[in-house]
Amino acid sequence: VQVYNLTIVKxxxxxxxxxxxxxxxxxxxxxxxNQINPHFFFNSLNGLTAxxxxxxxxxxxxYVAKLSSIFRYILQSEKQGLVPxxxxxxxxxxxxxxxxxxxxxxxxxxxxxxxxDLMLQLPVLSLLPLIENVVKHNIIDSDHKMKVCISVxxxxxxxxxxxxxxxxxxDD
Length: 172
Known about the structure:
It is a single chain. The protein is 60% helix and 13% strand. The chain contains 4 helices and 5 strands. The protein has a 3-stranded mixed sheet with strand order 2-4-5, with helices on one face. A two-stranded antiparallel sheet has the order 1-3. Helix 1 (2-53) runs parallel beside helix 3 (85-103).
C-alpha cells in the first residue's frame, strides 16, 4: 500500500513539474512575442514605405504577402511552445525576404539542414531575435556585406554564425 501511494505521489509530482515547465515555456514565448512585435512592426512598415515610394509594385505585393505570412506565424506562435526547425526556417525565409529588400543585396543567408534535422524541436520564434541582433548590432553596407549561416551539426546542435562588423552606436 505504501509503495502504491508513493507511486501515485511521484506521478502527481511529475505531472505538476511538466505543467510548470509548460507554463514557464509559454511565459517566455509570450514575453518574446511582446518584445518583438513593436520593433519588428516599425521596421516592416519602413521597408514597405520604401517600396511604395520607389513604385516597385511587384516587390511591394510580394513584400505584403511575406509580411502577412510573418504576422500570421507570430500570432499563431502564442499558442505554441516548441516547433519543428522546418517551421522556423519557413518563417525565416519570409522574414529574410523583407531584410533582403531592406539591405539591397548586402545581406544574405545560407541555411544547411538535412531532412532529418527539420524535425528537431526548438522554441517558437527563437531564430528571429538572433537574426534581428545581427542586423541591429552590425554595420551592413557595400563595404560590410553580411552573410548569416544557419546550420545543424552532426550532434544536432543549431549554429548561427555571421561576420562581426560592430556598430559604434545603438541606433537602427
